[in-house]
């Protein structure tokens, strides 16, 4: 088991290094080819009020006068030493900005991920058990409708209903206006978290519900399920004792693999609700040409998604020992 674990971890570490290298090259190339002028994006409407000498000072400070390959190797060398650079718009180290914003986004993404995973799995199991019933049709109608719904549109609809019309949820931000995150109470944080988390959850439920339903239908029609039915077992008994474990494995994999979509959805949701998380920082960095922050967030998101898939692979062996046995036989 220790030999398998060593090879497993070494393989994953090699893949992570390869992914980060490719992501770094691709992200830096796209940023370099972007028509957006970082100096104009940073200064904005005050561009006409600065002199050519001042503009040149900014270019020299950021190293924009150097060729793109030279800037990439300088940036990559600093990253290998743990220095992601300094954010232009926040005037702080990129690692500090990412850390602060990720803590805020973590509340949002964790709650949405947990709610969508649990509810999606339960709805998928019920729909698969009661195939072609009114419950199954209702769940499928809900899932098919919302699976194609953009998260920003859902956020605007919820915002109009619950914040503007009913007035029971805040319109924006992670804390009340004038109160810093450090001074906000847990209830105030949760109150501001409800609507953004609901936006991401409502969309995320659809995917996991549809996938779980299909796996549940297959499990309920399998040979071991038919044998259990012949022994007098009920549908609920077959689902609970025989099918649920087989359905849980792909559902967990899909849920962890959806971290990339969750991160992308949080970018739009945070923008709609002015939620000061990592997604909103990504949009600000793109609009204002904050290249160090944009590249830092790109690397961080790649690691974040990789960790999701890594945890899913680890859980495979825990939930299904046959995978460990298969790996040993393969060696």
Structure description:
It is a single chain. By secondary structure, the chain is mainly alpha-helical. It contains 14 helices and no strands. It has helices at 2-33, 38-43, 52-62, 68-80, 94-129, 134-147, 151-165, 186-220, 223-230, 235-257, 259-272, 278-287, 291-319, 321-330. Helix 8 crosses helix 10. It is globular. The model has no long low-confidence stretch (mean pLDDT 83).
Annotation, overall tally of beta strands: 0
The biggest beta sheet is recorded as: none
Shape: globular
The first-to-last residue Cα distance is: 11 Å
Tell me, rounded to a whole number, the average pLDDT: 83
**H-E string:** HHHHHHHHHHHHHH
Structural class: mainly alpha
The fraction of residues assigned to DSSP E strands is under 5%
Oligomer: single chain
Low-confidence stretches: none
Tally of individual helices: 14
Helix content, binned percent: over 70%
Radius of gyration, CA atoms, in whole angstroms: 24 Å
Draw up the topology in text:
Elements: H1 2-33, H2 38-43, H3 52-62, H4 68-80, H5 94-129, H6 134-147, H7 151-165, H8 186-220, H9 223-230, H10 235-257, H11 259-272, H12 278-287, H13 291-319, H14 321-330
Helix pairs in contact: 1-13, 5-6, 5-8, 5-10, 5-11, 5-13, 6-8, 7-8, 7-11, 8-10, 8-11, 9-10, 10-13, 11-12, 12-13, 13-14
């Amino acid at each position: 088991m220790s030999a398998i674990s060593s090879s497993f971890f070494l393989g994953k570490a090699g893949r992570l290094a390869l992914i980060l290298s490719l992501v770094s090259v691709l992200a830096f190339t796209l940023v370099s080819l972007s028509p957006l002028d970082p100096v104009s994006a940073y200064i904005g409407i005050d561009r006409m009020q600065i002199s050519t000498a001042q503009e040149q000072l900014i270019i020299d400070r950021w190293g924009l006068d150097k060729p793109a390959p030279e800037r990439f190797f300088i940036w990559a060398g600093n990253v290998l030493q743990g220095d992601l650079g300094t954010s232009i718009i926040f005037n702080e180290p990129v690692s500090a900005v990412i850390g602060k914003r990720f803590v805020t986004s973590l509340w949002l993404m964790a709650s949405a991920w947990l709610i969508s995973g649990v509810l999606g799995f339960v709805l998928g199991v019920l729909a698969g058990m009661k195939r072609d019933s009114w419950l199954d049709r209702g769940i499928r109608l809900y899932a098919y409708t919302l699976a194609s719904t953009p998260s920003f549109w859902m956020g605007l609809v919820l915002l109009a209903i619950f914040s503007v019309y009913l007035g029971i949820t805040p319109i924006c931000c992670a804390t009340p206006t004038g109160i810093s995150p450090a001074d906000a109470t847990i209830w105030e944080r949760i109150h501001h978290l409800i609507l953004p988390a609901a936006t991401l959850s409502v969309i995320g439920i659809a995917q996991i519900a549809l996938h779980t339903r299909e796996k549940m239908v297959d499990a309920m029609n399998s040979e071991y399920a038919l044998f259990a039915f012949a022994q007098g077992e009920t549908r609920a008994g077959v689902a609970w004792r025989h099918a649920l474990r087989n359905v849980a494995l792909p559902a967990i994999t899909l849920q962890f693999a959806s971290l990339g979509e969750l991160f992308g959805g949080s970018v739009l949701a945070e923008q709609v609700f002015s939620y000061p998380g990592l997604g909103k920082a990504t949009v600000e960095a793109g609009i204002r040409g904050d290249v160090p922050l944009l590249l830092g967030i790109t690397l961080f998101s790649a690691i974040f998604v990789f960790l999701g898939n890594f945890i899913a692979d680890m859980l495979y062996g825990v939930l299904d020992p046959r995978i460990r046995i298969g790996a040993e036989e393969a060696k």
